[in-house]
Amino acid sequence: MDWQSYTAIGIVGITLVVFVYRLKSPGRSKSGCGKNCGCDMAKKG
Amino acid sequence: MPESPSTIALVGNPNSGKSTLFNALTGENQRVGNYAGVTVEVKTGETYSPQGKKLNVLDLPGCYSLRTSGSPDEKVAHDALTGELANLAKPDLVVCVVDASNLERHLQLALQVIELGIPCVLALNMVDIAEKSGLRLDPAKLTEELGIPVVPMQANAAKGIIELKQALRHPFPPPSEASWLELDSEDIEAKRRSFIARLCELAARRPDSHQHSLTDRLDSFFLHPVFGWIAFLAIMFSVFWAIFSFASIPMDMIDGALGSFGGWVESMLPEGDLRSLLVDGIIAGVGGVLVFLPQIILLFLFIGLLESSGYMSRAAFLMDGVMAKAGLSGKAFLPLFSSYACAIPGVMATRTIDSAKERLVTIFVAPWMSCSARLPVYFLIIPLLLHEDEGSWKQALILFLVYFLGTATAFIVARVLRGRLGPDKTVSHFMLELPSYRRPQWSYIFRHVIDRAWAFVRKAGTLILGLSILLWALATYPKTDSEDPGEVLAYSAMGRIGELIEPVVKPLGFDGRTGTAILTSFAAREVFVSSTAILFSVAETDDDEETRSLLRDKISNATWPDGRPLFTPLTMVSLLVFFIYALQCLPTTAVVAREAGSWKWALGQFFFMSGFAYVASLLVFQIGSLIWF
Q1: What is the mean pLDDT of chain B?
Q2: Superfamily (CATH) of domain B6-205
Q3: What is the pLDDT of residues B181-214, one digit of tens each?
């Protein structure tokens, strides 16, 4: 494995950690959405 | 001890300009819709009186009355005004926002509010429209008869805001004596009607009551039982045609830019996993979704135009008859229409529906209104069904049929489900406001389009980016020593998942790669495009030409192991049908569980729709195969 492989795996690992953290995060929007559609629900916070 | 700020509540019919006034007073940007149901929860903000005292402002849900037995938003409004809502102070003053051009309807609610004995101010909004229609308003007379201050205004032009704030100075005006309650009638509603009729005769007179406005003349066409429908279908078709026609140039520009960027990254890095991640994972995955941005922008631009001009209320009127046959009232139109953008606000907008059973049915079928997340999939597949020389109108027609299929199925299932739930104990009524036609509010439209576009880009840059990285990893690891791209993919985790899935999806006309891409799209529908881009990119050989081709070209050239084309027209129709019906949105399921009050209902919906999608796709492919071969 070369430096590119280690870097790529590192990026994948960080991404996985971020996903798991966001899934378990207690501060999720009460509306249930990911605030990704630009509707009123996203503005409620 | 500092004095706690006073609380002002804004109350009014939907479409009275209440949210616009709330924005003007508090400085927050809230959505302005042209039909009922935009505000379904209580919004709060702050403003200051002329004396510099802080005032809390509540934007209550738009409603037509304060019936406690009515829809959820009527109950919320009533409870907020009587101080029965938890964690919300009873208002010290209420601003009743009325549409000056529709006083007879809007004053009904205002009188009910005044009868609660709370100090009130009447914001006589949209005076410009009233005056253009020939109404002669007499605010002084209204003040005298109602017993409360009346402030003429035009909230969308910020006219009258200063005068309204003057009316909010301390001490607040005393509550009105509600003189109409002394009228000679036993029925309180009859007293109100009689009072309003007399008041409008005195203070809101039309010089010629038989004069037809431009709105009336246009409505004679747009609400015609035959021409109205022709106009509706023509407008919808034109919107779709325009999207396909006008978006192709910016789409090609975006794709070209992404291709150049990918080429530049390739030139900067030697061959290796990082280069593959950046080019075949991130750029292919995120770029594959971003390329549809022009079409998303155009779609929401046209929707904003139709909303802002006042046409959408006419569409709701036309749809009322169709929805009645499906066992739904016209109140279901807005939740279902909202679901075309996203099912989540659509499901939440069902709070305006009085009947609990009708509400459940509407929630159940709402995800079948093809949401904007499906658009990248539709825009990817539909052009592949036609030859590249075929006109945009054929693509528009197919997109129209896609929407029609989802909508028609939703109505049929709603009819069946409504029948099974049984009749309601009380009859619910649908009151629809038909505002005057007006020039589109361009600032609102552009703000709306920018919001949607930014949300689309943000999703691509966050969720889609993350999923593209993970999908690339699944399609790359574990590695094999073989250099054959087919073997590389087959050895990877994605390939093994595909191998497991293939027997399940093969009857639908899909191979393991397509099945895997469908599986990943349950996280977000747009991910299907990213997954497909990654799966079919990783399979390219080193001998492939340097220039990056469109994803569609890659899909068109994809084959089964025996060399047969993978994406035949029938396969693509089967794929479209699957995406029309499948519920691939876990946030929607969570919101349904909350709004329906039951995870059983939400999970039932998920499994039913997933099963329905599978069976429909299976039938399309199998029957299609029999007919064509």
Answers
A1: 82
A2: P-loop containing nucleotide triphosphate hydrolases (3.40.50.300)
A3: 887 777 888 888 889 988 888 888 766 555 567 7
Q: How do strand B54-59 and strand B43-48 relate by DSSP bridges?
A: antiparallel
pTM score, whole prediction? 0.67
Write the single-letter amino acid at B443.
S
CB proximity B451 to A under 8 Å = yes
Residue type present at position B317? F
Chain A touched by B270 (CB under 8 Å) = yes
| Of B569, B590, B108, nearest in space to B381 by CA | B569
Alpha-carbon span B17 to B11, nearest angstrom: 10
* Selected residue with higher pLDDT from B124 and B290: B124
- ω into B478 cis (within 30 of 0): yes
* Cβ–Cβ below 8 Å for A32 and B459: no
Burial class (CB in 10 A: 0-12, 13-18, 19+), B128: middle
Neighbours of B232 (CB within 10 A): 16
The reply to whether residue A11 touches residue B469, judged by beta carbons under 8 angstroms, is: yes
Q: Which letter does DSSP use for residue B8 in this model? A: E
CB–CB of A2 and B41 under 8 A? no
Least confident of B88-97, B216-225, B348-357: B348-357
Q: Which residues, in sequence order, are bridge partners of residue B483?
A: none
Prediction ipTM score = 0.78
End-to-end CA distance of chain A: 44
Domain-by-domain residue ranges, chain B?
6-205, 462-628
Q: Buried (b) or exposed (e) across B427-464, using 16+ Cβ within 10 A?
A: eeebebbbbbbbeebeebbebbbebbbebbbbbbeebb
* Residue B459 touches partner A, C-beta closer than 8 Å: yes
- Between helices B293-309 and B311-325, what is the axis angle to 10°? 90
| DSSP at B269 | S
For chain A, the domains span: 3-44
d(CA B277, nearest CA chain A) in Å:
7
**DSSP secondary structure, B50-112, as one string:** TTS-EEEEEEPPP-S---TTS-HHHHHHHHHHTT-STT-PPPSEEEEEEEGGGHHHHHHHHHH
Q: Distance from B456 to chain A by nearest Cα, in Å? A: 6
Q: Which two tokens stand for residue B468?
A: 């593209």
Which residue among B41, B273, B588 places its CB closest to the CB of A8?
A: B273
Q: Which of residues 566-605 of B touch A (CB under 8 A)?
A: 587-588, 590-591, 594
Whether residue B590 and residue A32 make contact (CB cut-off 8 A), yes or no, is yes
Mutate to test the interface with A, among B273, B351, B444, B447 (most CBs of A within 10 A): B273
Task: Report the alpha-carbon distance of residue B108 to residue B64 in Å, rounded.
Answer: 8
CB contact under 8 A, B272 and A5: yes
For residue B246, give every residue at least 6 positions away whose Cβ sits within 8 Å of its Cβ, in sequence order, or none: B294, B298
Provide the pLDDT for residue A31: 45
CA–CA separation, B582 and B528 (whole Å): 13
Q: How many CB pairs under 8 A join A and B?
A: 96
Query: Residue B294, preceding bond cis, omega within 30 degrees?
Result: no
In angstroms, the Cα distances linking B35 to B13, B16, B205, B322, B463 are: 10, 10, 26, 18, 32
Cβ contact, residue pair B459, A43, below 8 Å:
no
